## 1
Amino acid sequence: MSGVSLRLDVDAWRRHLRVVSESTPGIVPVAKGNGYGFGLPRLALEAQNLGADTIAVGLPAEVALVRDGFAGDIVIMMPWRPDDDLARELLADPRVISTVSRVEDLAAITTLVENAASKPRVIMEVRTSMQRHGVRPDDLVTVPGRLDAITFEGWTIHLPLLDQGRYLEAERLARAALATVAAPLWISHLPVAEATTLAKQLGGAGREPVPMRLRVGTRLWLGDPGSVSTVATVLDVHPVRRGDRVGYRQRRIAGNGWLLVIAGGTAHGIGMEAPTAASSGRQRLVALATGGLEAAGRALSPYTIAGRKRWFCEPPHMQSSQVLLPESVPPPRVGDDVRVELRLTTAVVDQIVEV
Ligand SMILES: *Cc1c(COP(=O)(O)O)cnc(C)c1O
């Protein structure tokens, strides 16, 4: 199969998924955005096979992409807002848990569901040092008076990715929240060992730990780099000579060699992140030494051929890229797959090939 492929060692990957799942009590697999390169329907099926009782999506529109493959509850992590029609509609879905981040939205929901048959399921977000969303710790005391119209499923706390101060922040915010209403805690980005300690600590000596749900995305789906790799098909190979002009920009080739046209472009997320501009002094020197003056300011591509990343001729096109190979390197053949480095949280692959 040609194009950009995610090669998945499916047995190794599933072993890893199971290890993470079994060592993370209360795990809530996160399936959002591009599905970490796998797509949301695929992640829904894998979460189902893992036996998870709850999955987390980012946006209301993502609920439809997981609900057939996954039988349990679906948390929407993007905060509920009154002007979002789909978010409003999903309040009535008994499998959906909405995240609410402002006290006034609780009031809006109360008005909306006045005569509804069932109460919407809601978790309340506590503002952390991320300063993204959530009720300020000082305002938490106003929450208990506004819970009559909903089923309160717990507090959510989304921590920054730094280790420093993380546990203390989680503990401080959790205590403030639990002091107003005792409920499960939905935590993101706290390691399992710390979460377990925190659950016990908050429960208090001789009492049950506070119920905790841990939302995990990257560490679950992409935590075993050995089972996932990305390759792209060589679509054409042309001999080129120094001075030849190529590409949309008609740049001159700096030395004899091979022009490779390889699957993968901006539509796949190539050139969005991985290619490093030759901006540092050392990289410029390398560029000058290998390609001459013309190469200065060029970008290193994410394609590896004969053991090294190779230079783009010009910025990637929508679905393919033009890459230079020096004369001294035997070129790949049309149809060969070459390694391409992709950031799987931004990439879109043409297919998943199970190996
Ligand atoms: C995206 C997201 C996660 C998962 O993040 P990873 O770093 O991929 O594990 C967890 N919690 C919230 C609130 C998120 O938005």
## 2
Amino acid sequence: MLQTNTAGTSDYEQAIAEAKAAIIAKMTLSVGKDPGYATDRDWFVATALAARDRVTHRFLGGKRASKADGKKRVYYLSLEFLIGRQLTDVLYNFELYDIFRAALGDLGVDIERVREAEPDAALGNGGLGRLAACFMESMATLGIPAYGYGIRYDHGLFRQVIKDGWQQEFPETWLENGTPWEFLRSDVTYDIRFGGSVETKTVNNVPRFIWHPSEVVHAVAYDTPIVGWRGSNVNPLRLWSARAADPIALSLFNKGDHVGALSDQARSAAISKVLYPSDETAAGQELRLRQEYFFVSASLQDLINRHIRIYGDLYSLPDRAAIQLNDTHPAVAIAEMMRILLDDHNLRWDEAWRITSSTFSYTNHTLLPEALETWPLPLFERLLPRHLQIIYFINNLHLEATKKNFPNEPELLSSVSIIDERDGRRLRMGQLAFIGSHTINGVSALHTDLMKETTFRDLNRVYPGRIQNKTNGITFRRWLQQSNPGLTKLLCEVCGEEVLDKPELIKRLEEHADDPALQQRIAKIKRANKVVLCKIVTDRLGFRVEADSLFDVQIKRQHEYKRQLLNLLETVALYDAIRSNPTADWAPRVKIFAGKAAASYVAAKLIIKLANDIAKTVNNDPSVQGKLKVVFLPNYNVSLAEKIIPAADLSEQISTAGMEASGTGNMKLALNGALTIGTLDGANIEIKDNVGDDNIFIFGLTAAEVEERKRAGAPTATDNIAASPMLRQVLDAIGGGVFSPDDPNRFKPIIDGLRSQDRYMLTDDFDSYWAAQRRVDELWNQPEKWTRAAIVNIANMAWFSSDRTIAEYAEQIWKVPV
Ligand SMILES: *Cc1c(COP(=O)(O)O)cnc(C)c1O
């Protein structure tokens, strides 16, 4: 029961009154507007500022406490933090959501509109960046003192617009009007140096290296508080913004060169303008390396300052700090740490190396050869001459030791060396990260096994025992509790309120999997979520989809290995089959796609056009009305994911086996009751192990079979196509211009690619995928059985909470108590 205070109003009502007063005060005094004239955005800012005040007290209190008790801190270095909108996260995790909704309601304002007025912080590209965001939330929840370090991009990733079916890129302007969440820390500014030369001096018979850089840029800190569940703890996400050391060349300006006077400013500020500038040009490549060093150097200077301030010297750094490298993007940190210890603090090499290699750990996210980062030596030397010296030194010691331990295997050296001698000599950041870290982790059981067998096989022999697995996870606060309140309410009723703190209690749902009443409730919740998505489709695309259809969802970055194309081939085959056999038991489907392609990725952009061209044909064909629709929702981001995922019936996870390191979209969808159709790849395997073979649709070659076929070179794509009349018909239709009558040859490159090379083995898996989709139809036509399978999925997803993942990192990699 709510308590009543002496004034006669309940605590709850008083809390609402306080929230109302706080919002109005912010509206008047901070936004500077009369509430009568406020826009939705004004309400968002006022509400966010009122919420932020609550956070700030906890934030500062937590910082004082962890400083006082000398706890080990975790530093998570990532080029991406895909945090999305913050308002609901903050209010919900502080258990203020209902209070603020009521307060706004009393003011005549719908909180839903206020939420929508917040721009997405699109500081990431996909799964890797979203993982960093989920991890920050879980670290706060588990009370681990942590800093996230990254870049405060003015524009993040681009905004995707679909024009005539083609992807177009426009700058994302999330910071246009500032953001109420961050605190500018002008006093936390560091010099970041680039270029120049290195002078060698001998002092007391010891060689010293003095770097004379040719350029200095300032890194300025902005802190965004990340709130843990139930407000338990608040950690900073510290993002660096680039500024010129001299904002204006006054002498040039006074000579009348007003543009030239600002050119240094523009060159410096470019560093924190956009995520993933195109690296097709040399200038683009250089900018990318400048970004990486910029945020790494600022972050290390910052954490070392903090350590020295509290503990006095650097010898104890490994006991007080754990630095996690999210992929190789921040791997230059190994060299930067050594430089700081050797040159700025005069430590001996062995001592510096001991500190460095017992502080760092590295997460590998991909084994695709084209995605493993390397830098041309001349570029690296021009930008970071001292770091290249240090890397050569690290490499020499490493190769000497390897030679000694493996005297009969000289060929081992070229594989474990940091320098790739082929291809014009390049620095391999994966090798550097591996050699400089005490622990290297993969992100799913399969991916970790493949790491040991392929890319890092030899390094794993030289440094055995360093590789561990940490299967990814997702935060249930955002991906269940906030995005699917209907399902959350039911889970609280059936499994008990404690389920919000102990996800393993979701398992209790399974006891009721056969209960028709529960099945009906689950189906009703799903349907309500689908109605919300239907409205989004109508608003954004201008046509209707039926909530009673099967919502078949593939939402993720557009990439050939993820095989959106395989899904499109099946869509065309289904379209043909429905037309030839209209009375068969097809499950009525809406195929839903969303995802961005990298701006320079021509093949992926053509596949987006294909999806849109197929959609146009299918959606306008009356003969498949009510049976098939195709939807491409533009500008996939966290907020759109939060709407699509609770509404999904089927989750497409169909990458070529061995290529998706983990996936996390697969986890979000299964947790929300979508059944997975997927290959035995990444975390799909662990999802299958948890939900059981009967509650997932598995198809296609295994990773081992993929390797075997590649080795054997057979069967070829030609063989596969010859063996499948249906596939041949689909390829002929697309290649012959059935979906592109305005340009019949438009998709020829796609079809020719499949016929000649088929790098991602679509023709090998097509028939098996088709058969799995028909098993989907069959189950969909038995609604009780379908819902039962959905219930079993939800009930068995607790292990995929990022709280579990982070607890494993804490215990086994970082050695911090939880
Ligand atoms: C979870 C998520 C991803 C990752 O999806 P995958 O299917 O694992 O590739 C990408 N983008 C956004 C916005 C996400 O929320």
